[in-house]
Amino acid sequence: MLSLHDALPISTVAPGVGTPVPGGLTYREAHVFMEMISQIDAYASLEVAEVNPILDDRNKTAEFAAEIIASSMGKRIL
Description:
Elements: E1 4-9, H1 27-37, E2 43-49, H2 60-72
Parallel strand pairs: 1-2
Helix pairs in contact: 1-2
C-alpha cells in the first residue's frame, strides 16, 4: 500500500522562522491545502519544519503550526 507523507515548511507562510520565504502561501491557502490532503486515504504523516520560538512574535508562528496540524487531521477553519 502506498502512503502519502507531506512536509510543510512554515517558512513559506509564517514569519517566526529561521529563513522566511517571501511570496509563499497565504494563511487560507495553507489551510485549504491541508484540509484537502486530510481527505486522502493514504495520508500517513506530516512534517512541520522551521518554527523558531526565538524569532516568533507572541507565539503566532507556533500557534499557526498547531492550527495547520489540526487542518491536516480534518479540522475545518470555515
